[in-house]
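Recap from last week: sequence in, structure out.
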Amino acid sequence: MAIAKAERLMNLALCLLGTRRPLSKRELRDSIEAYVETFRSGNGTAASDDSFNRMFERDKDDLRELGLVIETVESLDGEIGYLARRDSNRLPAITLDAEEAAALGLAAKVWQQARLAGAASGALQKLRAAGLPEDVDPYEAHGALEPRIPVHEAAFEPLMLACRDRRPVMFDYRKATAAHPEPRHVEPWALECWRGHWYLAGFDRDRGAERVFRLSRITGRVRSRGTSFTVPVPDVVTVRETVASWAGETADRSALIRLRTGSGYPLRAKATSVRELGDGWDELEIPYGHGLDAWLVEFGPDVVVLDPAELRADVVDRLRAVAKG
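Predicted structure tokens:
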């Protein structure tokens, strides 16, 4: 059984690497002997088609896990095809010194969830096979502190795979100022972590513009769509700048708030000026950028926005949405 599967995967990989145009599932099913032999008795029945589709998806995922870059292409008539371009699957010679190998080992230990931990381990195995020095242990401890990136949102993994495979997605999203979630149709670009929260940057088809979504506000299941992207994906730097801006990391104005004495130390750390008002309150001037309203809400009754008026209105709207449940 294991030999048959290995042979089937090898034939599928060779077929995808050898073609100059995308091949449909039907063409692959008729071209690879293992598929022909396995589903010959089905004679094209619905049950046979379903079994083949499941086997093909598993085989495709296994090849991608092994490192083969498989592209999904939609033709003008809507038919989905697959191919593995040789230039996308050709790597230059890899040379790593001890410090570079140690950095990769440390990066592999960052992830806490099992799926990414396995992927990182597999990547290091491939690097070792490609020339990683045998006397270097990537998993050797390098200090008392180890980095960790927690991922608790169920939407992270399907969105990560959708970003990798360039697949549009659908999900229900609850804005901080809304009481109920709304459906969103998004072309996902990248995931970024800021202030301990994960954000998705992508193109919102319904609004016709780029948007950033906080994963903790995604409700229900993330569904994939069988269509291709409609807008080009910006480079990594642009996406990161967008995420940083929407997460409140950039500020182009100042806001004036009243803060209860002895509270809100993160706000005090960012304040450009602090003035005692008496009666248990202080007045702070803090940088004002996108996302500040969501941050201020976290401090509840200890914060009162004085200026500008639009920030005060945004905070009030968020508090009302929380009150509505």
